[in-house]
Amino acid sequence: MNFRENGQLVSGIEIDDMGHKTVGNDLDNAWIHFDNVELPADAMLSRYANVVDDEYKLFNDKLRPFDMIGQRLYTGRVAVAQGALEYRRQLFKRTKEYSDDKICPGNVTLSSIPQLSSLYEENLAQLKMLDELTSKTEKALTECLLENEPPSADLVDAIATCKIMCVEESIAMCHRLKQEVSERSGAERGGV
Length: 192
What we know:
By secondary structure, the chain is α+β, with helices and mostly antiparallel strands. It folds into two domains: 4-58, Butyryl-CoA Dehydrogenase, subunit A, domain 2 (Beta Barrel), CATH 2.40.110.10; 65-188, Butyryl-CoA Dehydrogenase, subunit A, domain 3 (Up-down Bundle). It is 56% helix and 14% strand. It has helices at 65-101, 114-147, 153-188; strands at 4-5, 8-9, 13-17, 30-34, 49-52, 55-58, 103-104, 108-109. The strands form four sheets. A two-stranded antiparallel ribbon has the order 1-2. Helix 1 (65-101) runs antiparallel to helix 2 (114-147), helix 1 runs parallel beside helix 3 (153-188) and helix 2 runs antiparallel to helix 3. The chain is elongated. The model has no long low-confidence stretch (mean pLDDT 86).
C-alpha cells in the first residue's frame, strides 16, 4: 500500500525512527503502526502464505513462519562466524609479514621468537578446526535451504555454537597476538 498521499501519511498509519541504538546506528530502522487499516486480499505479500476461503494457508507446511524468518538468522550467524575467521586470518597474515621482516637484538626476526612462533602455529591449527566446523555447518544449512526444509534442532544448536566459538576464539587469539607483538616490540625499544 502507499503510506502517503500528497506527501502526507494516510489515515491509520504512524511511522517514526527507532531512535538511537547501542549498535548499528548506520542502519535505517523504523517502526510502523497500523490502526484500522483495511487492504484488499490482493495487497497481501504472498511469498510464504495466503488467505484462502478466510483461512491462513502456508505454501510450505514443513516450514513454520518463524523458520522462514529464522533462515535469515541462521545464514547470518554462519556469515558472522566466517567474518570473524576471515578478520583473524588477515590480521595474523599481516602481522606475520611484519614480524618476519622485523629484526630484533641478536639479529633474529620477531617471528622466530618462540612465544610468537608457537602462537602462529597454534592459530593455524585452531583456524583449520574452526574452518572445518564452519564449512560443515554451512553445508548442512545450505542443504536445508535448497530442500526448503527447516533445520533440525541439532543444526540450529550447531549454527549458534559455530558463531560463538568462531567469534570468541578469534577475539581471544587476536588479543594474544596483540599482546605478544606489542610486548616484544616494546621490549626492543627499551620498554617493559
